[in-house]
Amino acid sequence: MSHHSLMITNAILRGEKVVLVPYKEEHVEKYHQWMSDPTLREQTASEPLTVQEEYEMQKKWREDPDKLTFIILALEKEGDIATFPMVGDVNLFLKGHPDDEDFEAEVEVMIAEDAYRRRGFALEALKLMLIYATGSPEDFMGFPLPQTVPPPPKPLPVRPQCLVVRISQDNRPSISLFERLHFSITRTVDVFREVEMRFVGSRLS
Questions:
Q1: What is the DSSP code string of 60-96?
Q2: Which long-range CB contacts under 8 A does 107-111 form with residues at least 24 apart?
Q3: CB count, 10 Å around CB of 49?
Q4: Which domains are assigned to the chain?
Q5: Helix/strand/coil (H, E, C) string of 95-155?
Q6: Dihedral angle of Cα 146, 149, 150, 154, to the nearest 10 degrees
Q7: What is the rounded (10 degree) CA torsion for 26, 28, 31, 37?
């Protein structure tokens, strides 16, 4: 069990193509629509839920000290953030205590809206999330986050070396996406047909 304080953030992270906002009640209906798609459910290993269960899940996720969840909005030039289209989500799941040897922070990203795929949205969302969660812009070729962003909630920031991602072996686009962020395949788990990738840092230094 975790003994650290609540991992809740109200941070809004703004990039050039996307804005990351905390997952709130107003996002649930759309999220539920996404998750009614069997393909997306399969890709994200998710159970079908009723909309009521999805509301309960959102509340639980929001209050879970081991999860950091942002909704990805497409950044529009005009208008209020509340009107920007919801296109996906990006998550960090902490496993164990940061002081443990085997502590890891598992990263997940999903661009659910077809029209927004293959346009660099996932890459930018990951950069923003990972810079925020690790406090290391230089590791993710990132723009430094503006001063107005609150520091990440405890037990963040985590060391980039703790970051891990698990991806289906067939998912070439995702694998190359994480390679661009300096992750490398560290393990192949054939029984689940998946690879495990960890942050190894840029070898240019």
A1: HHHH-TTEEEEEEEE--SSS-GGGSPEEEEEEEEEES
A2: 107/163, 107/164, 107/165, 108/44, 108/165, 109/72, 109/177, 110/40, 110/43, 110/44, 111/72, 111/87
A3: 16
A4: 13-199 (3.40.630.30)
A5: ECCCCCCCCEEEEEEEECCHHHCCCCHHHHHHHHHHHHHHCCHHHHCCCCCCCCCCCCCCC
A6: -90
A7: -140
Give per-residue pLDDT as tens, 18-27.
Answer: 999 999 999 9
Distance CA 129, CA 18 (A): 11
What pTM value is reported for the model? 0.91
Contact 197/178 with Cβ under 8 angstroms? yes
How far is residue 167's CA from residue 183's CA, in Å, rounded to a whole number? Answer: 12
Reported for 170-174, long-range contacts at CB under 8 A and 24+ positions apart, including other chains, are 171/43, 173/118
> In this structure, are strands 163-168 and 104-111 parallel, antiparallel, or unpaired?
parallel
pLDDT attached to residue 43: 79
